[in-house]
């Protein structure tokens, strides 16, 4: 061993990091010592390797994972190539954080004004026709049921509006009676062999508390709970004359085409009686 080499502790001190980090990077294959004492098992590094550490430090600050950094080091890509690959991902992360901030501000405002996460409007819905399937099953399979319905069509527009009608208001995520539908229009054609499987119905006009949700459908059940809470707080009476207790409309989701979940649009309708 030459005097110019640095122990792991000396290297960490000069690189302004911890010895633990240096040893961890060795285990990951990111920063290997140039020499290991066969007796003491101490690791030794060249001073120039501090620059290698600083490249790794720079990439972690640019939100590269250690696996991505290792791949970069193995392939010997240029930093310019690496940054070009990473830029779209960081831009997407920024958009996601901006949406999270916007959602937080909206929910805070709603809680302050309404004591709930939602701020619905009263909306009148005109009668419309649907194609539908009747299902008994968990909420988690609603998308699967909708895809099944979609598969029964020979032609269905990309902007089709799918929906779910719930028979009862009570929360039953394990096994609920569901009507999985799509709003009927002239561009839709059912496959001949599926004619007996797909039913049609007219949904009567109704008045409802309507809440729009922009983003992932993973929290829809929570929003339903908040919408019911809002109805009770504001004294609205449920409309029990309809063949369903509530309705979800899927204006834009992965049922239409592959997309980022933050771009999805849902609408919740809770039918109420006239004031």
TrEMBL record:
What the entry lists under SUPFAM superfamilies is as follows: Putative DNA-binding domain (SSF46955)
Coiled-coil blocks: 62-114
Q: Name one GO molecular function term.
A: DNA binding
* Keywords, sorted A to Z: Coiled coil, DNA-binding, Repressor, Transcription, Transcription regulation
Q: Identify the domain of life.
A: Bacteria
Start and end of every HTH merR-type domain?
A: 5-75
Tell me which PANTHER family the record gives: MERR-FAMILY TRANSCRIPTIONAL REGULATOR (PTHR30204:SF69), REDOX-CYCLING DRUG-SENSING TRANSCRIPTIONAL ACTIVATOR SOXR (PTHR30204)
By what name is this protein known? HTH merR-type domain-containing protein
Q: Tell me what organism the protein belongs to.
A: Candidatus Roizmanbacteria bacterium RIFCSPHIGHO2_12_FULL_41_11
